[in-house]
Design a protein that fits this description.
Number of domains: 1
Largest sheet: 6 strands, antiparallel
Shape: elongated
Strand order of the largest sheet: 1-6-2-3-4-5
Structural class: alpha+beta
Length: 91
């Protein structure tokens, strides 16, 4: 892994390399968290979750700078899935 700390900022290809190494980031100008898993970029915003291919990720978010997140900021995926399963049942 690269030698990184929470105060480093990343953009474009350097960000992609760090994401592929397992780091999770938040964008500086957007309330969005991003991580890389199973060859896709997962983005979590206040009201959305996206899964993007690398090309689409770069096209949409390549101009934004990001920082390594604090682990407490991460979305609880189990709770998230439980919530959406509950919503599907109610519809």
């Amino acid at each position: 892994m690269m030698d990184m700390n929470q105060n480093d900022t990343f953009s474009s290809l350097r960000l992609i390399d760090a994401l592929k190494q397992g780091y999770t980031f938040r964008f500086l100008d957007l309330p969005v968290l991003v991580r890389y898993e199973n060859e896709r970029f997962y983005l979590n915003g206040p009201n959305f979750t996206l899964r993007l291919e690398q090309h689409d990720f770069l096209e949409t978010y390549g101009g934004y700078a990001a920082m390594i997140t604090n682990r407490q900021e991460l979305v609880d995926e189990l709770k998230d899935e439980e919530y959406y399963a509950w919503r599907r049942e109610k519809q």
